[in-house]
Amino acid sequence: MTFLRTLAAAIDSLNDTVGRAVSWLALLMVVVQFIVVVMRYVFGLGSIMMQESVVYMYGTMFMLGAGYTLLNDGHVRIDIFYREAAAGRRALVNLLGVVIFLWPVCLLIWVMSFPYVTTSWKVYEGSRETSGIQAVFLLKTVILIFTVLIALQGLSLVARSLLTLGGDEDPQRQGQNGGA
User: Which parts of the chain have pLDDT scores under 70?
Assistant: First the structure.
């Protein structure tokens, strides 16, 4: 039981750290987009690299923040049944949801995107625009990191669900919705 608790805490800490770090990209995106608009409409200047950087930041924030969102119970589920359910039933729903839905989808995304990402790395794929960001291969790598982070957070959810089903009083992460 201590191993499960320690494992879940380590995974939670990883996704919390990553989520908090990439959340700063939201502010940076707004600033960069504001600069792009001012440059374009006030000074008549354009920057493909700056425009592409907004897309890179958005994709990175969305993909790497998914584990953080799962950690904080922010993903969609049918709350009409889940919210009022006892802790044991919620744990069972979480356990089955991870095993039946989350992990197979993560595996599918990994298997389908791995050749896509490796091909991009082989040629160091860059922007189609000459003055764009020449690091598309790095952006595509975020897909694989996404699958690892979300699958790991699923493992944390499974560990906490098993603890709950095993009679643990409160295996929920401190500060998490439904936790202490």
Answer: 77-79, 169-180
